[in-house]
Each structure stands twice: as structure tokens, then as C-alpha cells.
Amino acid sequence: MAAEILINVRPLETRIAYLENGVLLDLIVERKHAPTLVGSIYKGKVVRILPGMQAAFVDIGLEKAAFLYVGDVRDVSDDDGSILIKRGELDSEGPALAEQETESKDSEKSRLSIQDLLHEGQFLLVQVAKDPLGTKGARITTHVSLPGRHIVYLPTLKQIGISRRIEEESERERLKSIVESLKPHGGVIIRTAAEGASSDSLKLDLDYLDRVWKDVGRNYEKKKNPGLIHSEPDIELQALRDLLSEEVHRVVVDERRAYRKVLRFVSQFIPRFNNKIDFYEGDQPLFDQFDVEMEISRSIGRKIWLRSGGYIVIDEAEALTVVDVNTGRYVGKRDLEDTILKTNLEAARETAHQLRVRNCGGIIIIDFIDLEKEVHREMVLNALKEELQRDRARTNVLKMSNLGLVEMTRKRIRPSLVKTLCHTCSYCDGKGYIKRSSTVAYEIFREIEREGSVGTKSKELSVLCHAKVVDWIYEAESEMTEYLENRLKHPIQFRIEPNFHIEQFELIFS
Predict the structure, then answer these.
(1) pLDDT tens for each residue of 76-96
(2) Closest CA to 323 of 334, 333, 312, 307
(3) pTM of the full structure
């Protein structure tokens, strides 16, 4: 399949799009004021132990303390300091990239409590596994992983893993024997990009990452206070390291300095791809030229129309993402079951695509339209799983329930596209709705009754509220106003307050 990588660089924002046959499959957006921390290594200081949660808060020099779970703490009491209590997530693309690549043998040590491993005031070398999200600090781990082009080096572990996507057994054995012959000091995961790589290429990768690890150790010793000691390369270079492959027929960069930087990187680490790097000189913006802007706009919308006329609705909540499938304008040609099946199949593929582009993570519930036949439910589930196989993030899909619900998880590392490009609505405060004018009017009437019942002695009452509420009251609630005036025995005046929220009001007795 013909794939392209588009790199759009501006002073305060970098965007990378991965297209396959002209279709946007992956999108990475990083802004200078909020760069990703994933993969960065810090010297941290334990500030609080939480026995009830088996976790600790660690100061790494950021505004919010980072969160360290017991399963991400290695036992440094052993001689080589590489034995772990629990492996946690072992990701072949570094701590946060294509988790689905991993295959490794793991003998789990007996689990110790967080109190046995850490104490307040202790310094640790940690790596960010998940960016801060909302009110939560970064998720960190003591199991460092250093991604290279062909391998991921795991200096705190002792194991060799191979990407699941390398399927040919002879190639898997060849790569494993090469790595074993290099006798690495730590663990190694062989990435998909290593398929067909020579022994020299793998050795260069390992030697380079070993030098990086030694630099990390020296920087850790020098640093006296919590803070950064090693960061990942620029986002565009990370993307090329992880996405550039034989399937990619060109990389298009639209900024001159970034183009030169990309060329230097490719020349040094993957010179065979030098001829695939192009500088974009078109008059039209790069993402407009390839219709990526239109797809981004589509992917931050709540409703996504399907080609058949059906649609899906995607809602991101705090705890999970919900996808609802509807037939919409599609009425089918034969019978109801056939119409529903076709809509669900199309929705399954589009949902997997949207989850990838939007970078939705955590728990995801997909509400497919009910199907009567078990074979049709299996077809829909298989279509979803097949499309998810192309996803670089690790996913886990459960069986469809009798209600047509599919529960799944997708590894969450960075904030989703919606959270990156949008913020909570300041007017509805993220609820997604506001009270009707009539509802606010009735709240005002009830408050007037309460105030009147306590024996307020006044000659007049003024109510300050939003213009829409005032209009509603004078147009539809004159009878209720007259009732309250008779009850209070004085007039009520409703006045527009331009700066009030529609749900806000104030009673002034005079």
C-alpha cells in the first residue's frame, strides 16, 4: 500500500500525518506550550507514599507530582539492579508508542508492597510513560526503555522480545540469534523495522542506545535536585523513527529548517530512505493539498456520517469513550437485518479508524445496532478486530454482548485529539447542555416564593437575569408573574443583566 508521511512545521506547532492510499491513519499534534513528555527521563524524589493505593507521588520537577504505581517499580536490592517486581507495560516503541509490537517472556517476581520498595525522600531514576492528563500528573516507571530504529533497549531488564508483526519464523530466529550474539547488557525488543536488517545495523543501534544509557547515568549522578536528565528527539524525528518503512514512498516536509533536520537524521540512521524525503513548495498549505485539514475537522466532530447514510456518534467522557451506531438515512434494499448488518460493518471499520486518528484511549464502549443472528454479530466483531490490527496502539476487544455492546480498551498515552485541539466549553462547563429559559424562569419563581414566605417587607422586587429568560417570562409567564405579585402584594420587575450567564439570576428587594 502506498503510504506518505506529511510533516507540517510552524513556530509554535508541529503536525505529522500518516496517510495510506490518501486516507489519514495517524495524526500527531504537538504544540510548543504543551510538548509531550513521554519517553523523557527524570531524576525524581518520592514525596508521598500511598499504601492504600500501592503507589507513590514523585516530584520530577514539574508543576504536578508524577504518579508511580508499585508494578512500575523495580527492585534495586539485587546485585545487578535489573530484577523487577512486575514488568508492567513493556512497549516496543518506547514507553508510549506502538505497544502492540511486544512479545516477551516474563517470569513475575512475588509482589512486594510499595512500602518495601520506596520511602519518602528517596531519589529515583524514572521515565514518563503517560503525559499529564487533566488534573492528573504524569504516569512514570522505573523500567526505562530507549527506542532506536531497529530495537528498543531495556537497560533495567534481562530479556529479548520480538515484534509480533514479524511473522516469518526463520526471520524471527535470525534476528534473535543476532541480538543474542551481541550480548547486550540489558533487555532488547526487536522492532518491526528490524525485519531484514543486517547484523551491523542492529549492532549500531545497540551501541548507540548503550551510550545514551551511560549518558543518562552520568546526568543522574550530576543532578542534585529533581528534574529532566534526558529527553526524546523532536516529534518529527520520533515519527520518522517509528513510522518510516518500506511501505512509505515519500516524506513531505513544508519547512526548510525542519527539512534539513529530517535529511540529516535519515542520512545518519536510515540512509536508504534519503531519496524519499521531499521539500514541499506548493502554494496551497500542505495539509490542504492532501485534504488532511478536512479530515481533522471531521475527527473532532461528534457525529461522523458513513458512506451508506448511517452515522456514528462519539462522546468522550472522563471515564470512557462511547460510540453509538445509527442507520440514519440508510434504509437498505432487502430486509431489516441486512440493513443493520451493512451499517454495523461500515461503522466497525469507521470506529476503528476514528479511534486511531482521534487517539482515544482507556475504556471504549461501542453500541452497535442489535442483530438477531449470531453469525452476523461475529462478522461485525471480526471486522472491528481486523481494522484494529492496523492500529499501532495496543487494543483489547471483548465479545459482543446480546445487547450489541462491545467493550474494548485502547492504550492511552497522550491526550486525545479533541483534548489537544479543544478545551472544555466555558459556558456549559463541559456538561454539554444548559438549562432552558423556561427552567430558569421556574427556578426564579420558586426563589421568589421562598423569599416572600419569610416575611420580607419591601415595596418592590427587581429580578436581574439573562435576556432570553426575561423574554420568556414576559411572553409566556405573565399569569405566573401576576399570581406572585398578588401573593407578595407588590410589583415584580424583570431586568436584563447583559453579563449574566443564562442560568444566573439575582433577586433585589427594595
Answers:
(1) 544 343 333 233 333 344 443
(2) 312
(3) 0.78
